[in-house]
Amino acid sequence: MNRLGLHQVRLTINGKTVVEEVEPRMLLSDFIRENCGLTGTHVGCEHGVCGSCTVIVNGSAVRSCLMFAVQAKGLEIQTVEGLSQNGELNSLQQNFKECHGLQCGFCTPGILMSTSDYLSKNPKPSTKEIKEMLSGHLCRCTGYDGILKAIQKTVEENKETVS
Predict the structure, then answer these.
(1) pTM
(2) How many CB atoms lie within 10 A of CB 65?
(3) What digits encode the pLDDT tens for the residues 107-133?
(4) Nearest alpha carbon to residue 77 among 6, 118, 17, 137
(5) Eight-state DSSP code of residue 162
(6) Could you tell me if 99 and 156 lie in one domain?
(7) Which residues make Cβ contacts (< 8 Å) with residue 59, sequence separation at least 6?
């Protein structure tokens, strides 16, 4: 901690090392948006309920509004901006686009991050399991039908690639 009460935070976001000085109470979601300029991580409820701020921290989905930036010191974080490769959407993102899995797009980044984490750990989920995973996200626009179809399509494509 320096004389101004700031703490140095060094972490990796989307493969890039970031070093910043932050106030001890700065939320990780605010750090990602304000200090790193990665505005895909949205802040909705600030209570961890809506899921819009979900990012991957050291391989697990985390609500970034429930974590302080200083707690992320030394950790590896992936945001929605880190899903695409060389400017190309990954298959999950592409399927959200094709299956109309988004409307206003506010909740979409968090859902994409939770789904990416979930499918990495459970590559062949049932529809019931996908719905259960989605229960941690609030979407006020889509009714979840397009979201569910996009995830199911990604699961089917992944099965074909593995087979």
Answers:
(1) 0.93
(2) 23
(3) 999 999 999 999 999 999 999 999 999
(4) 17
(5) H
(6) yes
(7) 76, 117, 120
